[in-house]
């Protein structure tokens, strides 16, 4: 299987964040308790973000130290191994506060990488 480059992985992260934002638009934290499909979708998208972040090259990670790469990977690892013990309070914090804050930085990284190629 061909190696996926940093640009593609950054685009995967961006796409997942954009999808998360659309899924939670007009929603509240309590919706995660009552709408299982929503909580499962958000968890899966966070896992995708963490998996993509895990494979971003070290040089690119160093270029954007304001992106919490290790936290993203750690969250993915916790979610994918926790099964039914997912803390929805943390999930809501991540999707409603943390990810929207890093989206502009991800977009900048994508733009800069596209200029390089």
Describe the structure.
The protein is mainly alpha-helical and 117 residues long. The protein has one domain. Helix content is 78%, strand content 0%. The protein is globular, with a radius of gyration of 14 Å. The two termini are 22 Å apart.
In short:
This protein has 117 residues and is mainly α. It contains 6 helices and no strands.
Key structural traits:
117 residues; mainly alpha; globular
Secondary structure: number of strands: 0
Largest sheet: none
| Cα separation of the termini | 22 Å
Structural class: mainly alpha
How large is the count of helical segments?
6
Rg (C-alpha, Å): 14 Å
Shape: globular
Count of discrete domains: 1
Spans of at least 5 consecutive residues with low confidence: none
What's the rounded overall pLDDT mean? Answer: 94
Q: N-to-C SSE series?
A: HHHHHH
Q: Give the strand content.
A: under 5%
Q: Helix content range of the residues, please?
A: over 70%
Outline the fold blueprint.
Blueprint lengths: L5 H19 L6 H4 L1 H19 L3 H6 L5 H14 L5 H29 L1
């Amino acid at each position: 299987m061909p190696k996926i480059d940093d640009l593609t992985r950054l685009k995967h992260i961006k796409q997942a964040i954009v999808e998360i934002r659309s899924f939670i638009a007009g929603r509240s934290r309590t919706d995660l308790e009552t709408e299982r499909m929503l909580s499962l979708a958000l968890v899966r998208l966070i896992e995708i973000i963490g998996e993509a972040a895990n494979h971003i090259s070290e040089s690119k990670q160093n270029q954007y130290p304001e992106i919490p790469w290790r936290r993203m990977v750690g969250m993915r690892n916790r979610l994918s191994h926790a099964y039914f013990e997912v803390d929805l309070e943390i999930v809501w914090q991540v999707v409603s506060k943390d990810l929207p804050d890093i989206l502009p930085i991800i977009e900048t990284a994508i733009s800069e990488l596209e200029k390089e190629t």
